[in-house]
Amino acid sequence: MKRVGAGLVMLLLLGLCCAFVGGCGPVKTCETSLVTLDETRLDAETYGQEAAETAVKVAELEQKLSKKNEEIKMIEHKPAELENKVRELKKGSGKE
Fold this sequence. Notes:
Largest sheet: none
Number of helices: 3
Mean pLDDT: 83
Low-confidence stretches: none
Order of helices and strands: HHH
Number of strands: 0
């Protein structure tokens, strides 16, 4: 049993040594055309502009949402008064 364990340890160490000595080899150069690089840069710029525009729209929508939430808070505690207004409007339109 000790022999098998020692053999496995030796095999593991030998494998690690071979991996470090051999390594991954030399790094290959990137073979990308200039056209592809330019297209990628243009796409990145376009996406950046779209993200900026979207951020502006989000800010505007957040402002509108906060205003609506304030309006809701203002009328939230007045259900009876609002129900009376609805009844008056229904009477005026002939629905009641």
